[in-house]
Amino acid sequence: MSERGLLIVLSGPSGVGKGTVRKAIFDSEDHDFQYSISMTTRQMREGEVEGVDYYFRTREEFEAMIEAGEMLEYAEYVGNYYGTPLTYVNQTLDEGKDVFLEIEVQGAQQVKDKVPDGVFIFLTPPDLVELKCRIVGRGTDEESVIEERMRVAREEIEMMALYDYAVVNDEVPLAVKRIKRIIASEHFRVDRVIGKYIKMLKEM
Amino acid sequence: MSERGLLIVLSGPSGVGKGTVRKAIFDSEDHDFQYSISMTTRQMREGEVEGVDYYFRTREEFEAMIEAGEMLEYAEYVGNYYGTPLTYVNQTLDEGKDVFLEIEVQGAQQVKDKVPDGVFIFLTPPDLVELKCRIVGRGTDEESVIEERMRVAREEIEMMALYDYAVVNDEVPLAVKRIKRIIASEHFRVDRVIGKYIKMLKEM
After folding, report:
1. Tell me: the pLDDT tens digits for A39-55?
2. Which of A13, A28, A159, B84 is the most exposed place for a label (fewest CB within 10 A)?
3. For residue range B13-58, what is the model confidence (pLDDT) as tens digits?
4. CB within 8 A of A162, min separation 6: which ones?
């Protein structure tokens, strides 16, 4: 029985190490997901390959795709667009393969709106776990500094609330192991498998 | 930071092998759950030990506990009560340990009503996956036989809908591995961890 693949979204605050964890997952031997290549309007850099590192497009081409509803998510960053084309993701999911996106939090929010049954994993900075030490510091900081840290922590926790899972990135191999287990387990969720049983019964 | 433990409920249709899978989980080395011992009014059998195999109680004692709301779930089977006392489960969860229940489907329904944030795992017969072959058989069966098989399959699928996960018991070691992964992953669910972050922020 073929099922639709899972859309897996890895995101988290900037600087948390999303790219490193994603690379480690795809470098590991027993992974079984397709990586969705992003599209961008920024200049190709030395050594980069079209369709491997990014799909490189002009600003006009990118905006035409947004207009036509062909982007699953996108954001503008330092004057350039970055985003995920919808077609590849949908085709791959229809083939029953899991698609893995590693994107910024704004993009993850857009994907959540369009694909609520995706698996949303928030990578947490290790120091969020030691929140108190991090915010209060050595007790010698100005109140304004402490308040700013509180604000950032509050923002991170608010972001987290949109996700299904929160994985601490304390050690990359551990984070990789946790994420792989989460994805394996998600395949056994009743709301993902019960439809095929009901369909089989109806067809008889 | 201490968290409350998870209440894990393994159930499924009778004859699916719940007991075998549960034993294999508790015989495995790296499991980390507490097994909740059931209470019963049936006679103690040769070799059974009070507080190990069951808590053995009289019918009056058992009914007094039901009356006092001290049973998490119970059922009557062949003239005897079987059930799960609430106190041990709550104490163990409060200590931050996961509690594992292996119970019948009627009991699982009662637990779901009382502890909706438990992890409910439905063990699926391997032949539910080959539902069509199983129901239609070799194409030589009476219509009434086929209809009865359809009814049973429909019942099993209806039961499954109440659970979070459906794990096929095709091979016991595989089922054990899947269940352990599910439990590990459930610890990373945002709705289980976000509360402690919010609490920490509030306390500062």
Report:
1. 999 999 999 999 988 99
2. A28
3. 888 889 999 999 999 988 888 989 899 999 999 999 999 889 999 9
4. A108, A109, A112, A120, A122
Judged by DSSP in three states, A103 sits in coil
- The CATH class that applies to domain B7-36+97-203 reads alpha beta
Q: pLDDT of A163-202, one tens digit each?
A: 999 999 999 999 999 999 999 999 999 999 898 888 877 8
> Out of 3.10.150.10, 2.30.30.100, 3.40.50.300, 3.40.1010.10, which CATH number does the structure's domain A7-36+98-203 have?
3.40.50.300
Cα B59 from Cα B154, distance rounded (Å):
35
Which residues does A125 contact at the CB level (< 8 Å), separation at least 6?
Answer: A12, A13, A15, A16, A156, A168, A169
CA distance A112 to chain B (A): 15
Residue ranges of domains in chain A: 7-36+98-203
Can you state the angle between helices A18-27 and A172-186, rounded to 10 degrees? 70
Place of tokens 């429909």: B154
Tell me whether strands B119-124 and B7-11 are parallel, antiparallel or unpaired.
parallel
Predicted ipTM of the assembly: 0.84
B194/A160 Cβ within 8 A:
yes
- Out of A188, A194, A204, name the one closest to residue B182 (CB): A188
Q: Please calculate the CA angle B16-A193-A90 and round it to the nearest 5 degrees.
A: 160
Q: How many CA atoms lie less than 13 Å away from B132 in the CB half-sphere?
A: 9
With left for phi above 0 and alpha for psi between -120 and 50, is residue A139 left, alpha or beta?
A: left
Chain A residues contacting B, CB < 8 Å? 1, 122, 128-129, 131-132, 135-136, 150, 153-154, 157, 160-161, 163-167, 178, 181-182, 184-186, 188-190, 193-194, 197-198, 200-201, 204
Q: Do B190 and A154 touch (CB under 8 A)?
A: no
Residue B16's closest CA among B112, B105, B97? B105
